[in-house]
Amino acid sequence: MRILLTGTTGQLGRALMASLPAEIELIACDRNLLDLADVDACQSLVEQQRPDWVVNAAAYTAVDQAELDPHLANVVNGDAPAAMAAGLAKTGGRMLQLSTDFVFDGRQGSPYQPKQSLSPLGVYGASKAAGETQVRKVLGDRAYVLRTSWLYGPVGRNFLLTMLSLHKAKAEAGEQLAVVADQVGCPTSSLGLAKACWQLIQRVRQVQRDASSGEKLPSILHWSDAGVASWYDFAEAIGELAVDAGLLQQSAAIKPITTADYPTSAQRPSYSLLDCTSSWEALGLEPQHWREALGSVISVLASD
Fold it and tell me: Could you list the active site residues?
């Protein structure tokens, strides 16, 4: 099975490559090989390579910068996935489009179901919503969307690695670390998300082989680790577990603040918890609680 993977230098891309199943021939595309700002190149590469799947793990993820450069965000997150889908429409392949909790506005105060209407607050969320919609429109039942939330891992740029640096600096200076406490969701380990992506592709193959069963996988899925947290909760856990693992000598004291205390260019959903129950069942995977998953990632960092 040939799979074209975008975003190979990102935190999810690297986790996907590290956990690559043995039977897969990978076409690995970093930004040098495929610039998602070049829409024509996206379609051409897919038509040339003729993969069985495109796994689109690349994205424009600078949430605040997207407000200042909406054109680029919309090209990378909306037009490029649509172009890859158009290539697959000609060659017969399938697509896994990674998406985000930011396609919802966070105003309902209860976990979001996979089939709920999209209501993004800002440019980033709107661009990702457009990518989902266009890919599904072009490919129909050969398109799968997997939404996640608060992604972090042992590499890349993410909240975990930022907090580890801030914990160290603030603790050494004897200063408090201020973290937003009124935005609620769930952290997701890139290691667990990578496993879910490969499992989805394997489950699609299983269902194809046993067509007589009548089983059909959902085309929109949610994946996060289990539980719920605020950014403040996440930051507290990072400090605590990093000290336990020997990554930090001590953690900083954390002061909870409100979103209003930390203004940003982009408005963020105050409650973006994804209901993953049906997706966990469809994939046949047991989720880890987010603290347990965080401990596993910190253990990886401590062993490096």
Answer: 124
